């Protein structure tokens, strides 16, 4: 029970790492007319979930958690750098650093020690900090993955609701429909081998790159 409560805290929108300030290219996708209603928002998010989050971020998170459990510093540094290198634009890399460093500041205040040897990993991706926290709080890996997916989806839907804009009910329908796929995505992520850990979302990369110079912006990325 306590592990689940700690998971809720770790994925909460109130966690002070600024997750709500990022749209990961969605803001430009709305500006360009790629996303313009409930159906196109759901299609966009579903594509990112299947082609990036479940095939890149979750497999990296799983490997970081195993490495934390085994005190394997080499793997912790490797997979953190791998994820960072997989971010195609400067703003996506900046997001990784900013969220990682924010979590790195928070965790010691919650009683979680960050040793100097893994500090470089914490500094470049929040997934390293999440893996460390989940290890410390003994959160089961499948629960961690499900929680991460829910957190990503909820933040992305709320960004879409603001940007399109959509009503709150439309946002809840998107959450309801896409959340049904989360168990399948967790299973997929657990089955991916090291050589197949990779995302492929060129439209998101283009949107993020264009967002870097977008004239007016609500979100940092």
TrEMBL record:
Pfam families linked: UreF
Source organism superkingdom: Bacteria
Location within or outside the cell: Cytoplasm
GO cellular component: cytoplasm
InterPro entries noted in UniProt: UreF, UreF_sf
Annotated keywords: Chaperone, Cytoplasm, Nickel insertion
GO molecular function terms attached to this record: nickel cation binding
Assembly description: UreD, UreF and UreG form a complex that acts as a GTP-hydrolysis-dependent molecular chaperone, activating the urease apoprotein by helping to assemble the nickel containing metallocenter of UreC. The UreE protein probably delivers the nickel.
Functional description taken from the UniProt entry: Required for maturation of urease via the functional incorporation of the urease nickel metallocenter.
Family: Belongs to the UreF family.
Protein name: Urease accessory protein UreF
């Amino acid at each position: 029970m306590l592990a689940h409560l700690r998971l809720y805290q770790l994925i909460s929108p109130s966690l002070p790492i600024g997750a709500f300030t990022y749209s990961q290219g969605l803001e430009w996708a709305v500006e360009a007319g790629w996303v313009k209603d409930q159906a196109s928002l759901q299609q966009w998010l579903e594509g990112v979930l299947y082609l990036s989050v479940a095939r890149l971020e979750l497999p990296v998170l799983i490997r970081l958690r195993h490495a934390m459990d085994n005190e394997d510093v080499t793997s912790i540094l490797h997979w953190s750098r791998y994820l960072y290198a997989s971010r195609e634009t400067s703003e996506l890399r900046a997001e990784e650093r900013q969220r990682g460093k924010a979590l790195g500041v928070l965790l010691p205040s919650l009683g979680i020690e960050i040793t100097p040897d893994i500090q470089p990993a914490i500094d470049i991706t929040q997934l390293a900090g999440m893996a460390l926290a989940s290890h410390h709080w003994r959160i089961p890996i499948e629960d961690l993955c499900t929680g991460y997916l829910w957190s990503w989806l909820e933040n992305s839907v709320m960004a879409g609701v603001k940007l399109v804009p959509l009503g709150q009910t439309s946002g809840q329908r998107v959450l309801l429909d896409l959340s049904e796929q989360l168990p399948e995505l967790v299973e997929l992520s657990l089955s991916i081998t090291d050589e197949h850990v990779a995302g492929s979302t060129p439209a998101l990369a283009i949107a993020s790159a264009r967002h870097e110079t977008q004239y007016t912006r609500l979100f940092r990325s």
